[in-house]
């Protein structure tokens, strides 16, 4: 057989092997949940290293697009500046693209997604397409007044317009209760909801979250 054809066959087998591997590889996918200011981003950065997961923050992806003045960034900014959610259509499309960028992932920590029922449904379908699932929603529980205080404090250094104004911060918290908080029921119905006290030092909270992660 000519050498080129042998190489071609080998390549085909490799593609097939990778496809099978991807289909059978067990991923651990976590939704790190909670209202704005609960500490999702901080904890996701620690947990992604500890558990070798890919961290996807939809807020970070939007901010990256705003910084780079893309069309998506301009659209997202018009909602974010008011403390409102960006529409589901664009958010879901963007999230899917971020997941697809990481075909080799052991799993994902989703931070700030899903935030609506439609997003939770879309995420379930996306995971199913990957022969995978969301293993757990782990929620950081923090009182509203502590959240507002934390965000105002963060606003002094974060450079985020949506952290700088108390009225916008309160609107973000209100938006969470209007559209997002109900998602707890979605995961409770599947026995995949875990609530964790989100008040304490970063290390204390990581330890509480790790207890849940280690049981999965
Ligand atoms: P965050 O960085 O998670 O606090 O998100 C900042 C802002 O980005 C939010 O207030 C929303 O305007 C927008 N955003 C982030 N994630 C989502 C999402 N899953 N759905 C809709 N809007 C989002």
Tell me the number of helical segments per DSSP (H or I, 4 or more residues long).
11
Order of helices and strands: HEHEHHHEHEHHHHEH
If classified by CATH, what would the architecture be? 3-Layer(aba) Sandwich
Bound molecules: adenosine monophosphate
If strands are numbered along the chain, what order do they take across the biggest sheet? 2-3-1-4-5
State the separation between the terminal residues, measured CA to CA: 50 Å
CATH topology: Rossmann fold
The radius of gyration over CA amounts to 19 Å
Low-confidence stretches at least 5 residues in length (pLDDT < 50)? Answer: none
Biggest sheet descriptor: 5 strands, parallel
Helix/strand structural class: alpha/beta
Name of the CATH superfamily: P-loop containing nucleotide triphosphate hydrolases
CATH class, named: Alpha Beta
| Count of distinct structural domains | 1
Estimate the helix proportion, in percent. Answer: 55-70%
Strand segment count:
5
**Average pLDDT score:** 94
**What is the global morphology?**
globular
DSSP strand (E) fraction?
5-15%
What would a concise description of this structure say?
By secondary structure, the chain is of the alpha/beta class. 62% of the residues lie in helices and 11% in strands.
How would you describe what is shown here?
By secondary structure, the chain is of the alpha/beta class. Helix content is 62%, strand content 11%. It has eleven helices and five strands, in the order αβαβαααβαβααααβα. A five-stranded parallel β-sheet has the order 2-3-1-4-5, with helices on both faces. The N and C termini lie far apart (50 Å). The model has no long low-confidence stretch (mean pLDDT 94). The protein binds adenosine monophosphate. Adenosine monophosphate binds next to α3 and α4.
């Amino acid at each position: 057989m000519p050498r080129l054809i042998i190489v071609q066959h080998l390549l085909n087998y490799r593609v097939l092997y990778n496809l099978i591997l991807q289909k059978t590889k067990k991923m651990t996918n976590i939704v790190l949940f909670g209202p704005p200011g609960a500490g999702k981003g901080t904890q996701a950065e620690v947990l992604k290293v500890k558990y070798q997961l890919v961290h996807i923050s939809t807020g970070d992806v939007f901010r990256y697009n705003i910084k780079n003045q893309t069309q998506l960034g301009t659209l997202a900014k018009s909602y974010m500046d008011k403390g409102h959610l960006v529409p589901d259509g664009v958010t879901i499309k963007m999230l899917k693209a971020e997941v697809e960028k990481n075909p080799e992932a052991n799993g994902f920590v989703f931070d700030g997604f899903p935030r609506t029922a439609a997003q939770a449904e879309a995420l379930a379908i996306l995971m199913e397409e990957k022969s995978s699932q969301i293993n757990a929603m782990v929620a950081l529980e923090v009182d509203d007044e502590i959240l507002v205080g934390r965000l105002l404090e963060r606003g002094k250094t974060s450079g985020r317009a949506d952290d700088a104004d108390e009225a916008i911060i309160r609107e973000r918290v209100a938006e969470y209760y209007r559209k997002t908080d109900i998602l707890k029921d979605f995961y409770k119905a599947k026995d995949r909801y875990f609530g964790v006290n989100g008040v304490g030092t970063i290390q204390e909270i990581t330890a509480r979250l790790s207890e849940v992660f280690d049981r999965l």
